[in-house]
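FW: tagging you since you asked about this chain on Friday. Here's the raw sequence from the shared folder, copied in full. Didn't touch anything.
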Amino acid sequence: MFADTMMYVRNMPWSGLGTEVKEAPTSADAIKLAGLDWEVEGRPIFDNKGREIPGFIANTRTDNDEVLGMVTKRYQLVQNKEAFAFTDELLKNPDVEVKYETAGCFKGGKQVWLLARMPEQEILGDEVDPYVCFTNTHDGSGSIKICMTPVRVWCSNTLNLALKTAKRSWTTKHVGDITFKMEEARQTLGMAQDYMKALNEEAQILVDTKVESYVLEELIDNMFPVNAETSERKIRNVDAMKQNLFNCYDMADIAKFKGTAWGALNAVSDFVSHVQPARMTETYQANNWSKIMVGHQMLDNMYSMVR
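HL: got it, structure written out here
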């Protein structure tokens, strides 16, 4: 018997994160509205005897002196305004309307992001908003990255699958010359459109792939394995997660896809996007959205099994 120990909320995965910037005409405006108009500088690091540690610096916010990460002196620092400057070329494209949607940061500024929305598309009769997320890091963990995050409008489920036929994320070199900015923007739009086309084609295959209810149960069991050594507490938690996933599968917006691989995927997407644990931490929402943004492992696992 499943125990219901989780709460369930259906809204945007980034609801409550960042600052709404729909009317921002430039990336600089979006950054300012979101409170990201600060800079980072590499400062020397000293040991407990006051001696400078060679080869390393501390990336530090200049507005509050918070250290965001320690990196080698070879690390190339890219300021927020520099990281997203090329995105302004997206807004100038006469063929594809792109609007800034929201912007923010995680972990005190270690990761900064800017979200843009492309024109609505249709997949299997559903309205889907293609979001493009641009991220920059200051802790040495990554470079400027672009991620596709398509969202079903009706239910706010994210559908950024790890397709074999199109990339869902890529990095940009980011150079200052305007010619290169325009080329980066052109490539970004091209890859985003390629991903949405591939996603539509994959959805057609998955909706024709039948998944009987007993098979779905087996797949979900594989996602949440337990054995003789599993504690009773963990078993209760696993049962609760399974029940919530089945609840997602029974939602009205998935009804027309029930019995198919596409329906199973949407159930998992609903689960990772909207089901919250009973014990909420301060960082849960931000951490979960970070996973969703780059592709949630649970959704990838289900996609791999049904595909």
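FW: The CA atoms of residues 162 and 300 lie 6 Å apart.
HL: agreed, and The chain has two domains: 19-41+61-205, 209-306.
FW: great, closing this out.
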